[in-house]
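Bug #77: duplicate submission created two jobs. Keeping one. Sequence:
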Amino acid sequence: MSTTKTYIANIDTKRRDWTLTVRITRMWEVKYNPTSETADSLDMVLLDEQLQNKLKHQKLQGSQIHALIKKDLIPHFKEVAKEGSVYTISHIGVGNNKRSYQQVQNDNIMWFNSFTSLKFEPEGLVDIPMHKFNFQPFEHLAERNNRKGILT
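Kept job's structure:
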């Protein structure tokens, strides 16, 4: 029996048990109090292999989403999740991304929970780029200035 792949562009907030194959392209610790010794969350950008750009002259790249691991689960995942590696992530939650200065253009955000599992996928089994960039024309930068929607 074959299973249908789920891509970041197809997820929604109606389910809370998604399974995706993604690359962790960026990962960083977030501290709400700069003097705190421990992180409040471990945040990351996930990228999949789905081809998004339809224009023939543009390089095709995957979809991105911001994901996070809350403070109490960081010890469980910190040694397993590595920036640059590809994983099949199961039982990951999805919600509406209402944060200011979003790292990627996506209306959703994902979070790990106590049921989330990470399965490392060796390089070459899935064709996911190492990075994705959304360049903006220079003349559009001024209109993005002081907007809290996306980090510029």
